[in-house]
Predict the structure.
Amino acid sequence: MGRARECVPVLASRAQKCEDARVLLPENEKLLHETGLFRFHQPKRFGGMELPFQAIIDIVAELARGCPSTAWNVGNLGCHHWILGYYEPETQHEVWDANPDALIASSIALAAGRGRVSDGGFTVSGRWPFSSGVDNSDWNMLAVTIYEDDKAVDWRLCLVPKSDYRIIDTWYAMGMVGTGSKDIEVKEVFVPERRALALGRCRGGSEHPGGSLNKGALYKVPIVAAAGHPLSASALGAAEGAVQHVTEVFAKRTGTYTGAKVSDFQAVQVKLARARCLVDAARYLMRESAIAFQAFAERNEVPDLQTKLRFRAQNAFAVAQSREAVETLWSFYGANAIYTRDPLQRFLRDTQAINQHFSFNFDIAGSAFGTVALGGKYSNPTL
């Protein structure tokens, strides 16, 4: 955490440059490699830290105080070190023996990729959106639905090298601009079985292919159920950064037209308190659900479907609270908020953009939990 904290002012000073570039800056990537901050969930046997699952909340949220886009890429690319630990040992060695710092991008849109069984693996085609950090990565984990005729029969996370896919620059966005979340296209590429992780075997516990190699609790956490946490922390950190920025500015600000000390206005005090409480509540929900995933794994237990859906709903709710906190700050900040030189506008755009992610749509997450809690049927073969 100390290393992450030291990076914050550097990332903040480069935040506009990161937006202008629309990618993870090479100098930021270099800094994060030097500090080891991509490797917090990489298995220890490959030189990683193998920290408890909740570390992804703490580290990413800390970095997001400086630059939410860069923090998003740390959460996203960093969690792929975790997920690679579920693959066949041969595949882990293939990637990490060549380069233990290798970056792996992804796109988790299962409907975007289609595959069919081939001898020794699968033949895959598709075009996937939102592959964050793809320009910096050597590999990509692409979500693929496997079909027999027109029937979906399996769901795989296919690891493909950069030489097998085309990057399509679609990333012109209003928020999270520096994530470089471009499209990926694959045409009739063969993926061997050992590089096609069966998501149905990663719903908790150690029955996945990597379980024989990585026996720590971290690699017993259900992947899909917990997949939102590596990304949600960017919203939390952006909201924390916004609260800190506004508090520092308003402690000294006087009204341009009245000369009055802004910190004396009760409306300002109340709204600042509301924003602070929203961030604190979001941190509690997000972090406690991450801790709970880790605790289940340490007990060699798998949370039931209702519990998984509850944790996902809590995480989505926390992202909404983070956005609301920044919007509350924006509502009383005044005209200075419209200047691009002021970081509050970036925190606002970024939290609003993060809220558009499918994983953080509370209507979807809440409905899924409510359905199961009330005795209804909910089906997700990867959860």
User: Anything to note?
Assistant: The mean pLDDT is 96. The longest helix spans residues 266-298. The radius of gyration is 21 Å.
